[in-house]
Amino acid sequence: LLVGASLAVLSTGASALTIGFSQIGSESGWRTSETESIKAEAKKRGIDLKFSDAQQKQENQIKALRSFIAQGVDGILLAPVVETGWDQVLKEAKDAKIPVVLVDRGVKVADESLYLTKVASDFVEEGRLAAAWLATRTSGKCRYVELQGTVGSSAAIDRKKGFEDVVKLFPRMEQARSQSGDFTRSGGKQVMESFLKAEDGGKALCAVYAHNDDMALGAIQAIKEAGLKPGKDLSIISIDAVPDIFKAMADGDTNATIELNPHLGGPAFDAIDAAKAGKPVAKWIKAQGPLYLPDTAADEYKRRSAQ
Ligand code: GYE
């Protein structure tokens, strides 16, 4: 009987786990792709994924985590909306011996052992790359505006920092304005409208740096409505590489995007499997992506929208 019972357990496979996923919300096209991708990856692996949408609120994420802990899940994926305020709930997960994998954004905690690993890109590097592209395009002379992501998110903090690291090296690059558009299309449009108003219709502006594609898409609309040509009168660079930004780039409305791979479920689940097997796991599993320019935009749009 005992042998039979253990065989039955084995035959369900090592990955037949129950995993909680606390997602931020659905503020951007990128995030929607990430959600779909992680759900699909869980299904492929036979993982019972408990999905919780926090509607952009940290308090909802903390509640979701406590409910996952109470249910005794085998692991937790957390996409943390902001960077701080996680110590207590992560300690509760650790005390319950539930590994937590951060996906796509990071946290600031006093004790890094409170989470297993982070599967995310290097936002500082993305910001640096964006600024290097802009400096090259404008020969180091540019008065730009910045559309920041969600206030307090690691993605916004670090994309700002990386960009400014490089801008500092060019004495004739200057930030005119910077404000959060909350990573949404409507936020990007609204903030860009106010920037254009405050900047005499935008004539003295040279470029827009948006922390994600959705805000850039909103800004493109605002620029058009103000009677200027996005991608020409104002250079635009953003991050994510969602299908719609390739369409805009192919149409000449924007100039560059930095890719962020949304398929983070595979490495996140692998990390939980490794931890369960007692194998070491790196503290940061880096997702990487190149910068795309208009030359390949039409092809990229076709390829990505067909998927
Ligand atoms: O760039 C943005 C999203 O955390 C990396 O969040 C992610 C960012 C992504 O809403 O579109």
Protein described:
It is found in: Cell envelope. This is Sugar ABC transporter substrate-binding protein. Belongs to the bacterial solute-binding protein 2 family. With 307 residues, the protein is α/β, with parallel strands linked by helices. Helices cover 44% and strands 20% of the residues. It is built from 11 helices and 12 strands. The chain has helices at residues 2-11, 29-44, 58-71, 87-95, 123-137, 154-167, 185-198, 213-225, 243-250, 265-276, 297-306, and strands at 18-23, 48-53, 75-78, 100-103, 117-121, 142-148, 173-180, 207-210, 235-240, 256-259, 284-287, 291-292. Strands 2-1-3-4-5-11 form a 6-stranded parallel β-sheet, with helices on both faces. Strands 7-6-8-9-10-12 form a 6-stranded mixed β-sheet, with helices on both faces. Strand 8 (207-210), helix 8 (213-225) and strand 9 (235-240) form a beta-alpha-beta unit. Bound molecules: beta-D-fucofuranose. The site of beta-D-fucofuranose has 12 residues, from helix 2 and strand 9.
